[in-house]
Amino acid sequence: MLELPINRLATVAMLAILVIGGILAAAPAWGPFFLSDDVAFFTAPILGVVVAAPAFAALCLLVRCRYCRYRLFWHAVSKRSHRDSVEWFLRARECPQCRRSTA
Ligand SMILES: [Zn+2]
pTM value? Predict the structure, then answer.
């Protein structure tokens, strides 16, 4: 992972919150098997969005290149293919904008 201006642990924690929020937001797909319909179709998706949206915004705004301030997380989700975006984000060794390596 690139060296970031914010704490790596904080970045991973926000990613985890984003994933948890995403899972909750998808509750209508899996929730009816485990939860009551009210929770599966209403409470869980709303909670998921409420939790995931700030984590997503924070990742986009805070996770930047140390040198050129390029938004690395935004690059991962918008420029990379959906399949490898998170993997790229976790494994990137150089900034895609200024090519400075921080590894
Ligand atoms: Zn850079």
Answer: 0.82
64 C-alpha to ligand 1 centroid (Å):
8
Residue 101 covered by a domain? no
Domain containing residue 71: 8-91
> Please, which residues bridge with residue 101 across strands?
94
Per-residue pLDDT of the chain in tens (103 residues, 90 and over written 9): 677 777 888 899 999 999 999 999 999 999 999 999 999 999 999 999 999 999 999 999 999 998 899 999 999 989 988 788 888 888 888 899 999 886 5
Contact (CB, 8 A) for 61 and 90: no
Residue 99 domain-assigned (yes or no): no
Instruction: Examine residue 22 and state whether it is found in any structural domain, yes or no.
Output: yes
Kindly give the distance from the C-alpha atom of residue 43 to the centroid of ligand 1, in angstroms, as a whole number: 40
Residue 74 Cα to ligand 1 midpoint, Å, equals 13
